Structure formats: structure tokens, C-alpha cells
Amino acid sequence: MSSSNPRESDANSPGLSTTTVINASSPTWASGAQITNAQDGDSSEDPFLWLEELDSQRAMDWVVGQNNRTEAELFDNDFEATRAGILEVLDATDRIPMVTKRGEHYYNFWRDSQHPKGLWRRTSWESYLENDPVWEILLDIDALAAAENIEWVFSGAQMLRPAANQPYERALIKLSPDGGDQVRVREFDLPTLSFVPGGFDLPVAKTKVSWADSDTLLVATDVGEGSLTLSSYARTVRRLSRGQDLAQSPEIFAIDPSHVLAFVSHDSTPGFERDVAHDVIDFYNSKTFLRRHDVWLPIEVPTDVGVSLHRDWVLFSPQTQWTHEGTTHVPGTLLLADLEEFMAGTATLREIFVPSESTSLQSIDFTANYILLNVLQDVASHIYICDPANDFALRPLDIGSPLHSFSASAVDDEAATGGDDFWLTLTGFLTPTSLARGKVSDNDDAPRVIKSAPSRFDAADFEVSQHFAVSDDGTRVPYFQISPQDLPLDGKNPVLMNGYGGFQTSLTPGYLGALGPGWLVRRTETGRRGTYVVANIRGGGEYGPRWHRAALRENRHRAYEDFAAIARDLISRGVTRREHLAATGRSNGGLLMGNMITGYPELFGAVSCGVPLLDMRRYTRLAAGHSWIAEYGDPEVPEDWEFVKTFSPYHRLDDALPEGVDYPASLIWSATSDDRVGPVQARKMAAKMMSQGVRDVRYHESLDGGHAGASDNKASATMLATSYEFLWRHISS
């Protein structure tokens, strides 16, 4: 459904990618800017501003000292056993190698103990069906890193669509030097398995690129002064011809520097070739343009209506109520029209999906003749097939797996045969992932299971249940509980809560392969096993745009009230109590954790706060922070700061705690190379808490790995084990 080239997403990660519902923008590409150093004369107000010096000697001395302290306390035999168990899961050679079909081949990116940086590879369908497929290695990232003496991290490949009936021969390989969001883009030749001598080679930056043709790229990147927005994304887009210097290439599109991002993509679908430009104003507002006769023509809809193109259709998804030609469409509706008719002002919009109070559209994809809709109903997955030839009628695909996640996506909608084939993935908290392949038809025969991952821990005595807590304003908030079947309701069970609550991101069931050995099957001295809770709080996308917008800006507190309400519900139900309740969250979830530490310390015994936003006074000046103003508000605007400061954990530390209440034990962690949120807010929060004499505060910072916190499986296992071990020790006794 994307207006970009659908042949440009072969190997971004070892998974199947379903087209995302058409929001104005998506946090998945929200890479950030370089970390801003301490400035602006704020040192008199903030004694820890020097920790914003990303890699200064004094800042790194502090980081190394904190790392040594944390590792000396945590990295013992129990930690090593936990890390080894998690690494065994991550490196397992019998996990499913998820693939993307391009032409006659099935592409995959793979990491294991022998290839920690990974292999980009491909195979045939016949071989993929075997238990042990024969893979053609296209690019060995470990060998490349060794040869070039750069710790490359694979960030994806974009394939050039070949001429009809010809094989794929060229790709743009994206490589990060440290696991961050900045990448180098290099042209790769598939027949020779080598980088093209003198080929396209874009320097390390936060780049978005699209093939225009075999000798031309559309490039949004940093090309010097005036080329970036205030969010430090590309403000301009250039058309780069083979052999041309990037700085000399002509500018074809530009946006206001106060907006977030500009990019142009070329749709190379046969018969529908076109250039599409995007002016991303903020996270939820954008403008889309079609290039006609060297003129950019806008697709005229409100900026908070998501726009996407597929062949001769234009699709819309409003974030707020939208009235068009006398008809009102509720937020989260999916609408469709003929593109040329819409551009001419003669189109009639057709509603394909209309959400209810309990449903939301998560994503869609297209086979040759059908539309696949992935829907949540009370955070449970459902799949619907839309049949354009039958007046766009919807029918459900019968899966029958409550409290599981499953998604459908096209295998290859342009294949000469099998154009209506689809992948079906199914997973659950206690159910290992399986991959099936089906075909949309009049009968919708049951998909055939192709691959199944084995269990990674003994889940026979565990169960999954869904519950609803009542938040402060009376809203019912769902959460999942994964616990032993014989769980005694006496308040003594070690419980780990996880939450996010932002950017319309939904937390859905997924196999707990690493958390199983890291948390669930561990036992306290009295024999209690771990319980895990996933909180579906407002700010997320579990119930569509309305659920998300309910916790935006001045209403941010609702997300925190929801999380606290679930914690209270667990306590009131006898599942746990404060001294046995831990919580964890990353990124925006790290901001959530910061507000649990400072706003609800009476509820939690321990908190793990990862790659977090915490200083909401300065977040717009750090890394990619300016691009998130639509989510949180602008602290530079006095009226906004009045509400932003109420959920700025770094400033909430200045408020006196209620008498007799202690802060929870707190592990705050980040990564030096994180160029999306950056490590400096985490550093400052930990330093401030320590300076105030708060007990049991620890800090840990990975030196690479970017916003993910880890660049390979070993680093991921270390990161997870550090968090689990810290939390377990503080709440399991």
C-alpha cells in the first residue's frame, strides 16, 4: 500500500513486514539527530548539564565508573546463567528464518553465534520448504566489518526492480557504523556479490533513499547547511544521477525547516510509475504530492488524514473526525477512492473499514486481487479479507486463536502465479511462532504451516489471561497476565509489568522466548515463579487513534494513571504487592518508567528504565526530540511547559516525596551510540537521583547498539539479563 517502491524492503530485519496503516508518519523511522552538546547557558540551573557532553573525557569517565559499579554488583554466576539462557534462545539455529520474496528468491537476514553481525542471504522456495534450506550468502557482515575495520551493523537492503522477466541484480545496502540510525548507503551487485566499483555510495547520515531507475536515486539526506530541519532530518530531496556528486545534484523537493522530514519515493509498479513526495509536518500531520509534468500536485485532504497509494487507488485514514463532502468519517476509518477521480474532484469515497469502540485497524496489505486487513478487537487479532470484485465486501479469515497475535501479508502480489498467496504468522505469549502460507480464494482454504519454532522454556504450567483495570477517569484499561496456573493470590508473587503508551504503538501477544528463561521459570527461595504483565495503556494504538489521542500532550497523565491503575489492580487482586512488583519500559516506555519512579513510588519495588526520555525541559534540543513535539508538547512555549513539566521526571525529582515512601530500586540504562533519544537524559536522571541520596540507583550504558541498546545477539542478551537480574534481586525475596 505504500506510495514508495514496493520492491524496496527486502531485508530490513528477519521478519515479515505487513503494510502499516497509513498514519502521517510512524515512529519506526524516527531516527534522531546528532546529540546536542551542553549549551544555552543552563549550567546554573542544571548542575548535571555536563553529562550532555556525549563523549567528553569527564562524561565518559562518569559512564565507565557507573558501568563498573553496576557490573561488579550484578555480573555474577546467576547473571551469567541468565545471560547464557537468553543468548541460547537468540542464537538458536532452529528459529524460523522469516523471508521476503523478490522474483524467484526468498531473502532473509540471519544472526547466530557463528555470525553475530549477520548474513544477508537467499534461497529458493523448494529449498526453503526443507528443514535445513540451502542458502546463498549474499553479504557476510562479519567479514565485511573485519575487512574494513568498521563495526558495521546491517540496516536493510532496497532492491531495484528489474525489467520484466529479468532477475534482480542491484540493491542499496544500508550499514550503520555503530548500530545507530545513521547509515552509509552502498550499491551492491547481486551477480558478482560485491559492491559496485564507483557505484552509488552515500556517506553516513540519516538518509532516506529510493531508486528512481537503474542510474538515478532520490535522496533525502544531509548535504550541508540548510539541508536539515530543526529535527535534524532531511529538509530537501535531490535527484542523484550515476557518477554525479551529491552536492551538485539538483534539488527537487523541499519543506519548511520547522517541519520534521521530507522524502520522495518512486513507485515502480508496472503501469503505475510515479514519484510521490511527503512533507511530514509532525508525527500526525503530513502532506502528500504527486509529480505531474515536473509539478508537485497536492493530494488535497486535511493534514491529519493519512494518505497512501496502491496502483489506481488512493487510500485515506483520518486521525480525527473528518467530514468530506457532507459525510463524516470517524478516526481510524479506512477509505478508498480512484486516484484519478479524486485528483479531478469527482471521486466518491468508499469506507472499507469502520472501527467500533472495541476494534482498530492495525495494518493492511494487498494481494493481486484482494486486500488483507489486520484488526484488533480488545487487543485480540482478527483478519479480514476485502474483495474489491464483490463490492469490497469483508469476510473474516477463521483462525480461532484467542489471546494470540496473527497477521497476514502478501507473498508477492505481482507473481505470475500465486499472486493471491499470503503469509500468516501466529504467535502467543506461550505459543512459539509459526509461519503458514495460504491463498485467498472463494473457499479460503486453511493455510499450510511451513515453519514452526520450538518451545524455549517449559510453559506447561503457565496460562494467559486478560483483565481490565479502571483508571482514574473511569476508563477500562486492558492488560495481559502470564502466570503459573496455580498462582496463589496472597500478594507474594514476583511480577514484572511492561508498558509503552505512545505514538499509537500497540503491545500485542508475542512469544516470550527470552523472557521465559529470564523471568518466568526462575524461582524465588520459596519456590515462587515469575509473572509477566503487558499493559495496554492509552497513548498506544490498541483501540486506534482515539486511544492514542486520549493521552497526547496535556492529557499525557492518562497514560501514567492507566499504568498505575493496573498496578493497583494487581495488588487488589492479590497477585502481588509493592515489594514484589517490578516495571520496565524503553524509549517512550522509559519516560513512562520515569513517571512511575517519581509519581507512583508507593506502587513499585523496582523499575528498569531503558533508553528513556526524562528531561522534558530540554528534550527538544537533544537528539531527535524536536520531532516529538506533537506527542508531548513544546517546552519552549510557556503554555506547553505548564503541562509538560508535570510529566518531566527529571523535574519531578524536585518534588518532596510523601512521608514514609521511598523511591523504587531503579536501573537506568542507555547506549552511547543512541542517536534517536540519546544517553544524556538517562545519565542526568541517574546522577541527580544519586546526588539526592536515593537508595539503590544504578546506571549502565552500552557503548554501541543505538536506540535498540544492542547491535548483536550477545549484546542483546547482556542488556536483557542486566535488567532482569536487577529487578529479580530487588523484588523476589
Automatic annotation (TrEMBL):
Domain Peptidase S9A N-terminal, chain residue ranges per copy: 34-261
Alphabetic keyword roster: Hydrolase, Protease, Serine protease
InterPro entries for this protein: AB_hydrolase_fold (IPR029058), Pept_S9A_N (IPR023302), Peptidase_S9_cat (IPR001375), Peptidase_S9A (IPR002470), Prolyl_oligopep/macrocyclase (IPR051167)
SUPFAM superfamilies found in the cross-reference section: alpha/beta-Hydrolases (SSF53474), Peptidase/esterase 'gauge' domain (SSF50993)
Superkingdom of source: Bacteria
Pfam annotation, one family: Peptidase_S9_N
PANTHER family, per database record: PROLYL ENDOPEPTIDASE
Protein name: S9 family peptidase
